[in-house]
Amino acid sequence: MRNILAIARRELSAYFATPVGWLALSAFLLITGFFFAALVSLYSMQSAEQAFSPYGAPDMNLNEYLVAPFFGNTAIILLFIVPALTMRLFAEDRKTRALELLLTSPITTTEIVLGKFVGAMGFIAVMLACTLHYVGVLFYLGDPDVGVVASSYLAMFLLSGAFVSVGLVTSSFTENQVVSLVLGFGMLLLLWVLGWAESASTGLTAEVLGFASLINRMEDLTKGLVHTRDVAYYLSFISFFLFATHQRVEAFRWS
Amino acid sequence: MKTTLIRGAGLLGGLAVVGFLVAYWLLELQSPQVVGVGVVGSVLLVLYLWLDREELSEVSQSRAVRYGTGAALSVALAFGVTIAANVLAKRYDKRWDLTSEGRYTLSDHSISVASGLAEPVTVLGFFQTGSPEEDSFRDLVEGYTAHTDKLQLKLVDPVQEPLLAQEYAITSSFGTVVLVQGEKRQRLENDFKEEPFTNAILRLSSSKEHTICFTTGHGEREVDDDASAEGIGGMVVKMEGQNYKAKPFVPLKEGAVPADCEVVIVAGPQSELAPQEREMLARHVAEGRHLIVLIDPLVANETAADLSRYGLIIGDDLVLENNPNYQLEGGDPSYIVLDRASMDFHPIVNDMKAIALLRTVRSVRKGPDVEGYNVQELARTSPQSWAETDLSFVTAGVMPSPDEGVDLIGGVPMMAVVEVVDPSVVPVGDMSLPGGGLSLAPAPVDPAAPVDPAAPVDPAAPVDPAAPAEPVVEPVAEPVVAATPARGRNPGGRVLVIGDSDFAGNGLLAQGQNQDLLLNAVAWMVDEEDQIASRTSEGASGLLTMTGLQGIVVWLISVLGAPGLAVALALRSWIKRRSL
Predict the structure, then answer these.
(1) pLDDT of A111 strictly over 50
(2) Contacts of B99 in chain A (CB under 8 A)
(3) In this structure, are B70 and B134 located in the same domain?
(4) What angle do CA A188, A194, A195 make, to 5 degrees?
């Protein structure tokens, strides 16, 4: 555990030691901030129209029309940003031969993989924590549902975990960070749009594609509905890709 | 050359097999040609493996291949475990609704309806695949299937399955839901929320349609009016949704309560019911059927006083609430808020979890004990309320104070229910119309009628002295048969009197659990106690309005504030690195 935390600390500090991490954070906050402000303005205008409507405002729901779309947009931004954060995790170590040092040190492959995963997740946790002020604004202006907000953050965290695990495995296959980025982004995009193929299929195929889609599994979570099947999906997804990364890194020992 | 050909065949075979799997399974192109490609590909692959076996065997001896194969197999195994874990997780899925208003949690009523399903119901949801309506409906049905295995959902895209859509005459592009149970069908168009869906299941599974009759001709609330605040059409729509058939009738015109009326509702008469009409209602009750009277203060006092024949005393008063916890904001004391603490224990009100809101209410209390009746007061106001008998204050506009010894002070009952244990004690008088136009024969007697032998019979049932002198009370000589025999209960009818009708009107129907009060009462009367529950809450609305300045601040904080801070830290980090 100590080794895992040591590696995680090293990875986390690497993000903040260079402007790249800070710039990634600024880009993330700028885009999420734009979406947030735009959604709040739009919802406010709709609320004003509904409040003065003689027919009342029966269907206005802050959680459904503002909170869920905001986190939906945040997920898309993460899809672009996370591969950029994970591309260097193994690729850089391979290029600089630091991986050989790691592999020859008394640290197990599992500790290396988990350490890098925890480090990347730590940075993403910081990114997500920086969006909490949006929630504060929402609570100041309206009455969002704490449960919906909490389950939405759970969704973002699980989704980010899935993204990082895929980024780890693609980073372990190449020394070139750009190739790692393209591979990681391509894989995530494919898993993301599986849900779209669902509508073009029927029966078991549609069911499997719909279930395997990364985006479909987070929809209920952003509505405040926590399914064990969704949480299990993300956890098993993360576990599988971490295992695949482990196998790949282990191969360096005997290759 | 030979080796190249063999490896080329192997590659071709492998590609053909992969192509076959994609076409057959993913694209569902299950034609003989596709199968042919699969067979040829498999043959080529097997040929390659056989002909190149020596080379393959040599390669497989290398360390890289051995370790690589082991790793690949481990990953494949992990993939299998992942799939198995997800299949199990999907099968044994549990869900938690974290929304504060339980937006995705079914009401007790819907759960009761779902768990009470005896026969399988197939739910055909005709939606465009991937549409928001389809998603919402799937979520909704999942809530029901968590409580029953009798409900099966099949989502159908009318474009992809036009024949099925045609069979069910699907024309709406916004979705249609058809519930099928054997030969019976129920259809939902446009509104796929919990309440209509539950009602559709009810209509499908209920073997009997109950008829609820509304008296008219005395200024009662209009059954057909579901738009104005005064009408009772909104409640009627709710009743029809629960598989009840609503029917207005004029007692004097009919000459008697129609035989198919299981429950008669007198909803806020503004003028008196004729004495003959009151006798018709009494006979209706004596025959084992049921009566609900919603009677407002200041009007129809004679009709109100006549309810003493059922062992009730209806006050000529107005209940005023002085407890701020039970008043509406603004403090109008004539609005009466009832909560769980206000209610007694009775099937009609046991499941009331939220408030009920009544407006201008008169007291309804239990009279002197009458053998043959079970009378129970259902709800009382707070100890700070009273029933004001000096109603001159209404026109004077001065807030009165309770008069000790005159007014009923503290815990004023305003609704009561009567179960007739012995129908013979219900006083039924002459129903002939003035001038001898109509004389009704007594109801036929069924010798096999279930009469409670243990029930004491008191033909000379005492009548409240405050009751009007007319009509002359003539107890029914023999117990009559309930028109709709109940399941092992008293042969007499049931009577509910509420000292207000506003709560059931369109104006207040949506408040708290007002609708449940009457729907539960009807369900209890027609022996559908499994339908008594707290009904759907469709979720709260949430407006968010900003001033212009607030809007600017939100934009500044979101787009400039936090990202700007991160850019500043990036610059600091860059400068720090340069200075090293």
Answers:
(1) yes
(2) 63, 145, 147-148, 223-225
(3) no
(4) 120
ipTM of this predicted complex? 0.85
In the predicted model, is pLDDT for residue B460 greater than 60?
Answer: no
Structural domain of B77 = 2-91
Band of residue A129 on the pLDDT scale cut at 50, 70, 90:
very high
Query: Do B382 and B297 have their domain in common?
Result: yes
Q: What are phi and psi of B357, to 5 degrees?
A: -120, 120
Coil, helix or strand for B314?
strand
The reply to whether B383 and B490 lie within a common domain is yes
Contact B566 A22 (CB under 8 A): yes
pLDDT grade, residue A202 (50/70/90)?
Answer: low
DSSP string, B309-359: GGTEEE-SSEEE---GGGS-TT--TTEEEE-GGGB-S-TTTTT--S-EEEE
Q: Which helix (H) or strand (E) holds A229?
A: helix A228-254
For residue B79, the chain A residues in CB contact (below 8 A) are: 240
Residue B84 has pLDDT above 80, yes or no: yes
Residue B348 lies in a domain: yes
pLDDT of residue A103: 83
Candidates A18, A229, A230, A238: best to mutate against B (most CBs of B within 10 A) is A229
Residue A29 in tokens: 């906050």
Helix pair B53-60, B63-91: axis angle to 10 deg: 90
Among B134, B116, B114, CA closest to B125: B134
The structural domain count of chain B equals 3
Same domain? B177 vs B266 = no
Nearest to B326 by CA among B288, B287, B355, B299: B355
Q: Does any domain span residue B475?
A: yes
Check A226 against B562: CB less than 8 A apart.
Answer: no
- B575 has pLDDT over 90: no
> Does A237 sit within 8 Å of B99, measured CB to CB?
no
B99 within a domain of the structure (yes/no): no
Among the residue ranges A117-126, A208-217, B193-202, B447-456, the one predicted with the least confidence is B447-456
B92 touches chain A (CB under 8 A): yes
User: Is a pLDDT exceeding 50 seen at residue B487?
Assistant: no
Residue spans of beta strands (DSSP E) within B353-428: 356-359, 364-366, 373-380, 386-388, 408-409, 413-420
**Residue-level length of chain A:** 255
Q: Are A212 and A191 in contact (CB under 8 A)?
A: yes
* B427 beta partners: B475
Specify whether B224 is located in the same domain as B334: yes
Look at residue B551 and tell me if it is in a domain.
Answer: no
Instruction: Write down the pLDDT at residue A52.
Output: 56
User: Are residues B321 and B462 both part of a single domain?
Assistant: yes
Q: Quick one: pLDDT at residue B430?
A: 67
- What pLDDT does residue B112 have? 85
B307 vs B136, residue with greater confidence: B307
State mean pLDDT over A73-99. Answer: 89
Last residue within a domain, chosen from B159, B194, B229: B194
What is d(CA B24, CA A1) in angstroms, rounded to the nearest whole number? 47
Question: Could you tell me which of A209, A185, A207, A188 has the C-alpha nearest to residue A197?
Answer: A209
- Amino acid in the structure at residue B533: A
| Structure tokens belonging to residue B479 | 């117990």
Q: State the DSSP H helix or E strand holding residue B238, giving kind and residue range, or none if neither.
A: helix B233-241
